[in-house]
Amino acid sequence: MDYSPALMTDMYEYTMLDATLQDGTADRTCVFEVFTRHLPEGRRYGVVAGTGRILDYLKDFHLSDYDLKFLRDRHIVSPQTIQWLENFEFSGSIRGYREGEMFFPNSPILQVEGTFGECTLLETLVLSVLNYDSAVASAASRMTSAANGRPCMDMGGRRTNEWSAVAAARASMIGGFQGTANLLAAKEYDLPAIGTAAHCFTLVHDSERQAFESQVAALGKNTALLLDTYDVEQAVKTAVEVAGPDLGGVRIDSGDLAALAQRVRNQLDALGATQAKITVTNDLDEYAIASLQTAPVDSYGVGTQLVTGSGAPTCSMVYKLVEREGADGTMMPVAKKSTNKANIPGRKLAYRSFEYNLADCEHVIAGNRSQLDAYQPEEGWKDLLVDFVDHGEIDDTFRGHDAIMDAQNHHAEALAELPITAQSLMRGDPVIPTEVTLL
């Protein structure tokens, strides 16, 4: 599908651009900020994901002649705005929390600075990417914490939109997953691909033995054979007879997973397949994974609950104007005062403080540029903001496979810096408070 990310947006981004180009405010320098007012109910932290995808989209954030014709034919913008858009490229700057970083209420996750015209066009795309990807990464983080070192694999492609399946695979890796069943995600981001056979593979053969023989012949003894199409105990016996003691693994996709895993492990060991791994699937979430901690399970395949954020499919992030150039050319903080939707004016700095090597507070400092330039954080505070785009120049170190793996490592380090209650699955408040200082 050939499309422009510049049209992955709401119509009012373009109508606002059109009006401000006509009244002269489109060229005013502005600072927009992405943040969330609250975490999903009961969650202790969130995980940032999606920034690399935003940078990928930014590379191609242009309108083709066909796109411009659509805007013209629909009378969405004026001819003057069509002309302005013909050679549009984002020339502003973007900074924020790196992927894999933890975020909390009022964390300035992303800051976009440029003219009003160019910044407003990014709003919907930025929010759609960050809200979904961060929701998936946050769920993945909870799942990998519950797995306690056992690998988790993404199998959620059939439970969501075909494009979000690719995004979810990428975000799950940032949250600590080790592979994906989605081949497009594996190809685009150079991720480990996983998968062997479904129940239909067994059913299409005249017997389970023939299915296992076919799979081993095609994929080798290291493959994982699916046990629960018929009778699990008989399937284990058949699997070892077909593949021998060098059988690589088995998968269980139904029933009481803990009890079945124990019986299967004992049976495999008794038959000599002591090195065969056990993978469990079947609509797992972090709670189900935690309940399997004492079971002899080697890895988890997670689908529906991963790609839906395990009950929190969005992070409720918003994109708000916090500073803008006035008529006299000076920058001034601005903010909404709407009931329950007010935001903190001014551009931001963000730090995390520590006590005894554990994070104890998120510090958000708001003010104008000169105030923030002069601000001196306390000794030992960690600066949370990095530069992604500098006056239109994208830092490519935050894109591609290596950036995903760096984000995965950073996530593990950042999670280890939080108090251990962050890994609790019990409902609770954010694990550390956010302290906002207005200069």
UniProtKB/TrEMBL annotation:
<dbReference type="InterPro" id="IPR007229">
    <property type="entry name" value="Nic_PRibTrfase-Fam"/>
</dbReference>
<comment type="function">
    <text>Catalyzes the first step in the biosynthesis of NAD from nicotinic acid, the ATP-dependent synthesis of beta-nicotinate D-ribonucleotide from nicotinate and 5-phospho-D-ribose 1-phosphate.</text>
</comment>
<dbReference type="Pfam" id="PF04095">
    <property type="entry name" value="NAPRTase"/>
</dbReference>
<feature type="domain" description="Nicotinate phosphoribosyltransferase N-terminal">
    <location>
        <begin position="7"/>
        <end position="131"/>
    </location>
</feature>
<comment type="similarity">
    <text>Belongs to the NAPRTase family.</text>
</comment>
<keyword id="KW-0662">Pyridine nucleotide biosynthesis</keyword>
<comment type="pathway">
    <text>Cofactor biosynthesis; NAD(+) biosynthesis; nicotinate D-ribonucleotide from nicotinate: step 1/1.</text>
</comment>
<dbReference type="GO" id="GO:0004516">
    <property type="term" value="F:nicotinate phosphoribosyltransferase activity"/>
</dbReference>
<dbReference type="Pfam" id="PF17767">
    <property type="entry name" value="NAPRTase_N"/>
</dbReference>
<dbReference type="GO" id="GO:0016757">
    <property type="term" value="F:glycosyltransferase activity"/>
</dbReference>
<protein>
    <recommendedName>
        <fullName>Nicotinate phosphoribosyltransferase</fullName>
        <ecNumber>6.3.4.21</ecNumber>
    </recommendedName>
</protein>
<feature type="domain" description="Nicotinate/nicotinamide phosphoribosyltransferase">
    <location>
        <begin position="152"/>
        <end position="320"/>
    </location>
</feature>
<dbReference type="GO" id="GO:0034355">
    <property type="term" value="P:NAD+ biosynthetic process via the salvage pathway"/>
</dbReference>
<dbReference type="InterPro" id="IPR041525">
    <property type="entry name" value="N/Namide_PRibTrfase"/>
</dbReference>
<dbReference type="InterPro" id="IPR006405">
    <property type="entry name" value="Nic_PRibTrfase_pncB"/>
</dbReference>
<dbReference type="InterPro" id="IPR036068">
    <property type="entry name" value="Nicotinate_pribotase-like_C"/>
</dbReference>
<keyword id="KW-0436">Ligase</keyword>
<keyword id="KW-0328">Glycosyltransferase</keyword>
<dbReference type="InterPro" id="IPR040727">
    <property type="entry name" value="NAPRTase_N"/>
</dbReference>
<keyword id="KW-0808">Transferase</keyword>
<dbReference type="InterPro" id="IPR013785">
    <property type="entry name" value="Aldolase_TIM"/>
</dbReference>
<keyword id="KW-0597">Phosphoprotein</keyword>
<dbReference type="GO" id="GO:0005829">
    <property type="term" value="C:cytosol"/>
</dbReference>
